[in-house]
Amino acid sequence: MRIRTAVVTIAHGRHEHLHRQRESLLASSLRPDLHVVVAMSDPVLESWRPEGPIPTRVVRAPGDERGLPLAAARNIGAAVAAGAGATVVVGLDVDCLVGADLVAAYRDAVRSEPTVLWSGPVTYLPASARGVDPSMLPGLDAPHPARPAPAPGQRWTGGDPELFWSLSYAVHSRTWAAVGGYCEEYAGYGGEDTDLGRTWAASGRPLGWVGGARAYHQHHDSESPPVRHLDDILRNGATYARRWGSWPMTGWLASFEEQGLVVRLPDGGWARRRPA
């Protein structure tokens, strides 16, 4: 079979969520020609060989002592997809289920405007929706209010690069290669998505939103602000500031400051507060 459209998912743990994502892909109006799964420090996932009508390639991301190599893993997945012949590459967070028309909507958008970095609306599902049948997802549709949410059948371009997120996106493989993908100076949690949005815009190419590409984020426990990722956020924030002249994730940093965990530096940066 000729590979035209591939879905790329990176994962560390979250095996049940990945299996549920697979079920939603199988229920799609258009199934991808290939599912690339990039395992990060996950030997169990590395040995996963799912059966069924969607061919799957599981590849291993190299380890990184700084943390999970999220940026590098997404680049690896896109490269594997392109190497297999895919022109349309859909990136999905492991926690995301796909709406029935997500793959088709992304495919059509990328084919129509191949220089655009496309994103789709994402609904955060409540804990009570665990195990929901994919056919029931439209009844739970409530896209995140902080992101654009065009209606199904609509596409918007000219998107704010700082609103790009890796939960759900799609690109043309040749455009991705021309832009260079994610900056691999980032590792661990935070900053790499906003960097990609800025990089894409700086290349002179637009960002856009696809109303028909609706995804549904499966519930999992989380903390806000994400204190356990504080060191990653400070390190990656400093990388972003060096590259772009300003700090990202300022809402989280302000919350950390209120908790007495970080201090602002005279140069406008941030650092851990030293014990008294």
TrEMBL record:
GO terms for molecular function: glycosyltransferase activity. Pathway: Cell wall biogenesis; cell wall polysaccharide biosynthesis. Transmembrane segments: none annotated. Keywords: Glycosyltransferase, Transferase. It comes from the Bacteria. Belongs to the glycosyltransferase 2 family. PANTHER family: GALACTOFURANOSYLTRANSFERASE GLFT2, RHAMNOSYLTRANSFERASE WBBL. This is Glycosyltransferase, GT2 family. It comes from Nocardioides exalbidus.
